């Protein structure tokens, strides 16, 4: 028998015209009396299985590189778009010889000039565990293949976590996470690097915040920041939203828990002691010094400007910092001045997108950071697929450009002008999605998540909370609502109609 809870689930094929059209491939939109969730095939399980299936297809897409591209074909891994850092760094960072990350210096003969592992501590641990699980014996090529499969299995588990957590974050909208499961850029980039580990921890942290478990949310965000830097940005939106809602105690709890989790993971690797006292370990600091010292690189707006103008942009760090500060202030002002308090996922997406758009480098797998946030912020199939198309074009563009630059006189691939166009497409696609999210914030009646009367399903303690501190138009709007008495009961709080 169908439960009342199942009747309340928002169904994309009813709400979204693109989803309805796409559903014709599997029989058309779901009927009003469909028994969804009444059997083992609940939305969360279906989405998790679809995500795993798409991940497997992404593994198949890497097939041209298994036996040849990663090892002997300098350009094959680019022309077939099957490049992955994983097999290269297994030997390139000394995992095949038992070198301990951050503690042991990598021999220059294999590292290509990188003396220590250039990844945060938890990602290094992830790589080390995969190396331990990789069977020994055989040729180095065979062990690199096995290491890639071990890492792929662990990253597949991360994919399932992301799908489940994202599906459960918005209680009434689990089907939105189907966009994550079906995202083509997600499948194509899932095994390029180890970013999915940090994305999974971030998705779990957002799920815990949506359930009001502020300590556990902070711990997971702190662990995610110990695997990749970007999850730390989520604390910014939480601060301004908690400020507007008068929930700063919840923010302090989460921020302190995040800092504590980050320190517990990092301190044992970070601090070393010798006769001269305590010092920061050089191996631990490598990620941070490398990020600071690296020049402008692939995919960034700075590379596009540099190539078009011939200016090397040696002060790129200053430009990046300035734009991040100005952009963050603008997002904070938007959060405090909007006519209705933005949803957590909306601001999180905007801030991470700002970081990606202004960064010195845009690696293809960085799209993984945005996919779950984009789905929670703007679960509109048309807009999401437009953005994904742009990201797939960039994914193909960078590999074709590397094939062109690495093929010598053959010039096999995409010339510089074509790659610049691919960068522009990526930037414009991301900006487009940012624009529609900003529009939803300024015109909350356009927000598809709020059409059913919801406030902030991913907001946790913010969901249904009244506004305490607002600025500009939001203050004037609230005064008008007080004057006209247009208030309705929202949960346990009085909220404007």
Automatic annotation (TrEMBL):
It is found in: Cell membrane. Its main location: membrane. The chain crosses the membrane at residues 40-60, 146-165, 177-209, 215-243, 250-271, 318-337, 344-364, 384-406, 418-438. It holds the Pfam family GT87. Residues 476-497 are annotated as: Disordered. Keywords: Cell membrane, Membrane, Transferase, Transmembrane, Transmembrane helix. It is a multi-pass membrane protein. Belongs to the glycosyltransferase 87 family. This is Glycosyltransferase 87 family protein.
């Amino acid at each position: 028998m169908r439960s009342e809870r199942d009747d309340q689930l928002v169904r994309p094929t009813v709400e979204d015209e693109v989803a309805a059209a796409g559903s014709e491939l599997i029989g058309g939109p779901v009927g009003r009396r469909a028994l969804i969730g009444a059997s083992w095939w609940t939305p969360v399980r279906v989405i998790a299985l679809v995500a795993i299936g798409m991940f497997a297809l992404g593994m198949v897409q890497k097939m041209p590189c298994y036996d040849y591209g990663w090892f002997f074909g300098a350009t094959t891994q680019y022309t077939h778009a099957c490049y992955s850092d994983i097999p290269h760094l297994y030997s390139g960072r000394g995992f095949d010889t038992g070198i301990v990350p951050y503690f042991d210096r990598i021999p220059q003969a294999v590292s290509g000039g990188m003396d220590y592992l250039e990844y945060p501590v938890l990602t290094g641990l992830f790589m080390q565990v995969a190396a331990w699980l990789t069977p020994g014996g055989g040729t180095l090529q065979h062990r690199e293949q096995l290491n890639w499969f071990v890492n792929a299995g662990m990253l597949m588990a991360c994919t399932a976590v992301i799908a489940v957590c994202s599906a459960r974050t918005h209680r009434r909208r689990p089907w939105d996470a189907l966009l994550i499961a079906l995202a083509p850029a997600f499948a194509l980039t899932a095994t390029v690097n180890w970013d999915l580990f940090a994305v999974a921890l971030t998705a779990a942290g957002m799920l815990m915040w949506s359930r009001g478990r502020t300590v556990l949310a902070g711990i997971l965000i702190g662990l995610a920041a110990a695997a990749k830097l970007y999850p730390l940005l989520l604390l910014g939106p939480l601060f301004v939203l908690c400020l507007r809602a008068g929930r700063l105690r919840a923010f302090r709890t989460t921020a302190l828990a995040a800092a504590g989790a980050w320190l517990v993971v990092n301190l044992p690797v970070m601090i070393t002691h010798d006769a001269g006292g305590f010092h920061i370990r050089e191996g631990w600091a490598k990620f941070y010094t490398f990020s600071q010292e690296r020049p402008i690189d692939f995919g960034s707006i700075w590379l596009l400007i540099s190539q078009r103008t011939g200016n090397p942009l040696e002060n790129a760090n200053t430009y990046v910092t300035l734009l991040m500060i100005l952009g963050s202030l603008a997002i904070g002002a938007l959060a405090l001045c909007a006519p209705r308090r933005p949803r957590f996922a909306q601001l999180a997406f905007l801030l991470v997108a700002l970081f990606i758009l202004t960064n010195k480098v845009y690696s293809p797998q960085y799209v993984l950071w945005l996919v779950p946030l984009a789905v929670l912020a703007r679960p509109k199939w048309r807009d999401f697929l437009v953005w994904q198309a742009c990201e797939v074009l960039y994914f193909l563009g960078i590999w074709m450009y590397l094939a062109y630059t690495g093929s010598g006189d053959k010039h096999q691939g995409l010339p510089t002008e074509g790659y610049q166009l691919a960068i522009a497409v990526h930037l414009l696609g991301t900006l487009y999605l940012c624009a529609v999210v900003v529009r939803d914030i300024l015109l909350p009646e356009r927000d598809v998540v709020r059409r059913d009367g919801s406030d902030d399903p991913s907001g946790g303690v913010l969901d249904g909370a009244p506004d305490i501190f607002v600025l500009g138009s939001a203050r004037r709007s609230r005064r008008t609502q007080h004057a006209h008495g247009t208030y309705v009961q929202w949960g346990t709080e009085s909220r404007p109609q």
